[in-house]
Amino acid sequence: MGATQLETFAAGCAYSFLTGPAWPEENANVDTMTARFDADLPSRDAELRKMDRRIFLACTFYTVLATLVWLYFVISQRDGGVLFRQYNITWESVASVLGAIFIFWCGWSGLWYWIKRRLLRRLGLSKEELDAVFSTRDGDFRLQELTAKYPERKIRILDMIGRRGRAAIMATVGFVILYLAIRKSPGPESLAFGIQNNFFESLVFGWWMILTYYSNGFLGKVTYGAQARIMDGRLARANCLLIGTLWGMFKFVMIPIGIQLGAVFPSEYYAVLFLFIWISYLVGDTASEVVGSMWGRQKLRVWGVGEVNRKSVEGTVACFLGAFLVCVWGVYSHDLSVAWLALALVIGISNTLVELWSPRGTDDFLLATSNALLCLGFGAWFL
After folding, report:
1. Would you list the domain boundaries of the chain?
2. What average pLDDT does range 145-166 have in this prediction?
3. Beta carbons of 100 and 205 less than 8 angstroms apart
């Protein structure tokens, strides 16, 4: 076997492993949320365009408002308090933004866009279909045609690979570094998790997503290519933009809660609180999508920003186990009391219910917020 044949054989084995078993019923399982509109496609298209436009305008309105607030503090040079620290443009903040754009938005995101595109090509998508998938999908994109032609499960798996490969790996590394730093040197601002210091950066990233939203060129593809699910259809970029905007809004919720947590809990608990609030959410949310895509039967209909909004029992169970077990590890690694095991169970259940019932596109924001509120209630009650 020559080098070329060996490379082709290895690529085929990797693809078969990543896309999992071919469930025969998937080709026929075209979701009624898309198939039932075949007879009234113009009306359905208008409805999707309207929802897409509303989300874009709402996110743009928030970003404009936040920018005006930032400009007010820059011009007036008034004290921004805990919510608006480090609003001035410094060489450090500029370097941080440029580094994130080139390393994450262009480099890392571009890599996962390329990986997803290659895997979709191996699935059989033509160049025209790939161009439609990685476009704004505002033209003649028809999700039901893709799910009728290609196995829906494999499309879901490749969606998951692109989305989680791009976000979960970087988030895991960042969260672990923060956790270890807080465990080593817990400070009075540890429970704000550094988000009070990134006002300027969050604005730049918000505008980056807005300005590339309608781009079908290189920047639009590397920004949205890996993270925009095929199964979200024409609302794929709207889903991503909503998530990114809500992340920018985290500071207005998590900083006040973090201050209250710091007032209730001694500093030796800061690291485990970070684990309960952020790492449990990351593990549970990731486990839910990985297991649900690979082995789940998508029977649970939910509401959210996407053409197809379904989840699975298998993914829901994986969310609970992931969140619960990481909290249990935190309890034992920090040698905490049995009461913390009860909190771990509550966090696991809460993550599962919020991930299942929150509108798709809002679960990241709601998961971390609900976890923080549960920890705050626990501290006020038991400490």
Report:
1. 39-382
2. 94
3. yes
